[in-house]
Design a protein that fits this description.
There is one protein chain. 53% of the residues lie in helices and 10% in strands. It is an alpha/beta fold. The protein has three domains: 178 residues, P-loop containing nucleotide triphosphate hydrolases (Rossmann fold); 61 residues, Orthogonal Bundle (Helicase, Ruva Protein, domain 3); 77 residues, no CATH class. The strands form three sheets. Strands 4-5-6-1-7 form a five-stranded parallel β-sheet, with helices on one face. α6 links the parallel β5 and β6. The C terminus is likely disordered. Bound molecules: adenosine-5'-diphosphate (ADP), magnesium ion (MG) and zinc ion. Magnesium ion binds next to α3. The site of magnesium ion has 4 residues, from α3.
Length: 376
Amino acid sequence: MENFIVSARKYRPATFASVVGQRHITETLRNAISRGQLAHAYLFCGPRGVGKTTCARIFAKAINCTDPQTTTGPDGAAGFEACGRCESCRGFDEGRSFNIHELDAASNNSVEDIRNLTDQVRIPPQVGRYSVYIIDEVHMLSAAAFNAFLKTLEEPPAHAVFILATTEKHKIIPTILSRCQTFDFNRIRVADAVGYMKYIAHTEGVTCDEESLNLIARKADGGMRDALSMFDKAVSFCGAELRYKEVATSLNILDYDTYFDTVDTVLVRRGAGALRPGAGAGFLGPDLYGGAGEPSARPACGSQSGYGGAFRCHGAADGALWRPGGALRGGVSVRRHRAAGRSRLAHPHRHQSAAAGRVGAHEAVHARRTRLGRGR
Ligand SMILES: Nc1ncnc2c1ncn2[C@@H]1O[C@H](COP(=O)(O)OP(=O)(O)O)[C@@H](O)[C@H]1O
Ligand SMILES: [Mg+2]
Ligand SMILES: [Zn+2]
């Protein structure tokens, strides 16, 4: 079988210019390199799959390149990039460089692990100028490990550069934060993710409509890795031609038609029908209902049962569906009153005493108003 590599790995950007949607970071790093103003510790924060590890690797490659180039990116901005040809760059590209060390702090979070790291940091690189230490998920370090790391992080040897990466910046203690230059990565915008997927689709010979890519990008919720994983899954499902309907099915997403059908049904005051199993969007029912198993398991008023009955009788269901739109809420309140009328018949005493209470309260307010009026 052909050696398949997932798109998220195959299309990891290798230059600053090809990183999508993080220009504020790539530009700053490029300028810092070209001015020779490197910090000894960086903190890359942001959600998963937005380019933290990617930028750290590009940075490590660029600062070790023996023949750095000034290139013009796709947006026309000139900047510093690794040449991609020198021995150091080739070492990076082939994954055999000794100038980059990646440590996963999620599984190496003890004081002992940090001691090993600080021992290693003292050894200068045999080739190239800098040893770059990328510590992923750094928020997972134990409190003791953080403290053991402070001294090295504050004053590392001249050849060492630390890049700490985290998805949870708020868990990093202030003493670490103050020793690092912090970069906040953006979530990837839908348009950027679509553009990148279009490029990949074109390179891979996959035809696709814009809607499919939009759907994938929105479901990825700002993560490029997630978007590319979904893209691969959709290609596996649909073949070399991505079509909106099939992509929606493969990703288990409700397509627009279902949403429109549901709202249409509701607008013509057949809200209960929209939720009934088999009415097109039938499987929406349990979600809106609160996901609590079979509808018949819930008590329903009078002769009503199933989704329809539950919908008329229980505030939870209409609360979930109707809260966003005042116009829609109106339609339901009629049913609510009707339901209230029905259940009043079923429990006359309760409603009588409630009504009596209301009358009493009304009289009390009236009496008070009158008293106040007299006082004036
Ligand atoms: N900004 C980006 N531009 C292009 N591709 C990206 C970007 N961010 C992530 N990716 C894709 O997602 C994959 C994982 O990105 P990575 O940098 O490892 O994410 P993380 O932020 O979790 O460290 C990359 O190999 C690349 O394919
Ligand atoms: Mg990472
Ligand atoms: Zn080079």
